[in-house]
Automatic annotation (TrEMBL):
The chain crosses the membrane at residues 20-45, 65-90, 102-130. It comes from Stenotrophomonas chelatiphaga. It comes from the Bacteria. This is Membrane protein. Keywords: Membrane, Transmembrane, Transmembrane helix.
């Protein structure tokens, strides 16, 4: 069974989506590095470079625990954001090469969480990827309505 050729409009949409995935991946990576300041502050608290003394004589908790809280949340946010940016860039490459249809769909859905750019990109990517001709171009079997 031969797949019908992709229309010029669908090919152009895939090319533009690929470019926009790279752009939004860069913006996502840049925004995910904002908590580096919290990471540095947390590490300064943990190592004692940023002393935290309470005004009372007895401290109810260890200030290093507060530092580890900063480190853990900043590290998780940075790692998650950079991972999402990496997957967005990889999905852009896969869109250009017309492969890994399911991965592109999943990344489009997850990128909807990154408002406003990821939402717009994710919705338009899902709309284009759900077209039967585009599915066929990816090698995915088109879904027939029941």
């Amino acid at each position: 069974m031969s797949t019908p050729p992709l229309s010029a409009q669908d090919a152009d949409h895939l090319r533009l989506l690929s470019i926009f995935h790279y752009v939004v991946a860069g913006i996502t990576a840049l925004c995910s590095l904002i908590p580096v300041i919290h990471l540095v502050m947390g590490l300064a608290i943990v190592t004692g470079k940023l002393p935290m003394e309470s005004q009372q004589g007895s401290e109810p908790f260890d200030p290093r625990l507060f530092g580890w809280f900063f480190v853990a949340f900043a590290g998780a946010f940075i790692a998650g954001g950079l991972t999402l940016a990496g997957f967005m860039a990889y999905a852009g490459r896969c869109l250009a090469q017309r492969r890994r249809h399911l991965l592109c769909m999943v990344v489009a859905g997850i990128s909807c969480c990154f408002m406003p750019f990821g939402t717009v990109l994710g919705v338009f990517t899902l709309i284009v990827l759900l077209r039967p001709a585009v599915k066929a171009a990816f090698g995915a079997a088109p879904v027939t309505p029941a």
